[in-house]
Amino acid sequence: MIRRAIVGSVILAVFSLGPAIAGRQAVPGGGQDFAARARRIHAETIGIDSHIDTLQRVLNGKEDISRRTGKGHVDLPRLKEAGMRAPFFALYVPTYYKGAEAVRRTLQLRDAMQSVLDAHPDQIELAVSASDIERIGKTEKIAAVLTIESGHAIADDLAVLRTYHRLGIRSMTLTHFRNTNWADSSTDTPQHNGLSDFGREVVREMNRLGMIVDISHVSDKTFSDTLAVTTRPVIASHSSCRALTDVPRNMTDDMIRAVGKNGGVIGINFGGNFLSQKEVEASRRNFAARAAVDPGLTGRALDEFATKDYLDTYSAMRPNLSTLGDAVAHIDHVVKLVGVDHVGIGSDWDGISTVPAGLEDVSRMPHLTAALLERGYSEADVKKILSGNFLRVMRAVTGR
Ligand SMILES: [Zn+2]
What we know:
The protein is about 45% helix and about 10% strand. It has 16 helices and eleven strands. Bound molecules: zinc ion (ZN).
């Protein structure tokens, strides 16, 4: 009953957003049970989320995500319950890990992921292709797709990139909050005028290997340079729309159109500071502060710093000013610009410390679907957003 009440209020909130998109109006007085339809859709769809940071909780918090953890945004039982059964687990390496240290940290995260895979073969399996996702999705298991955040983790060496591919990693953001030695970040001072020549080589090698190029976090110029080089669809794994929330981490309308033309997908980030203009000032301060962190340590001391850094930053889920309706508005915005084939979910769960009201963790995902149905999206459209669009890109890039 409580859930129903929440969905009801969400639906009211969505209606108060303004006129529905032309051609997508809900049937008035249809008496449809949006919540029930949403639950059915989530039960029959392999939901894909192109960016979750839950591995940080495994590595830094020593959490057992095979059980209901009662904290954070994601664990395996909640993923299953929500039908979000193919998350992209980010191997997130803070930019203060440099050179070989960044490679070492990436391997620690890959090892942490393997520990989960080895301990719970009945619950989760590595997926390295679209057909793997579909095969695993026919079982009760979670299909784990592995991604790297960010490009500094290759330590400027294509041999390291290739080895990551052999370890089952199928996507990588080119940057994080700071520039790499070959690509400018959206939250740093431009240094390479976008992608350097070596940066172009990285994109070409990712295309050749079958790794998805992820343009979340890159500068606008790096974005356009990447789109000029790539021969495969790209993703923005966890970004939202700058027209609605003006932060450099979000996509301009021109960038969204370019991703549409490229055949790629934008995964909408649920962080309050990505979804709501009211949060922008706090977010600017936050990005600047995060980008400036540099403890100047190595080895175990650096790992201990990173653990505390993550736990301090993300341990508390704080309510904020954004709502589930804002997430719908960002999805709507992409759909209005380029249609329903180029938007997906890139929640950033467990990497964001503020979450929208009504969308507090992954178990709330059916509420988002109910709101989309109420907004007039067809079930086929919702399934593209939840799954089909990322599956298409994965197939185009990995070849199967
Ligand atoms: Zn990120």
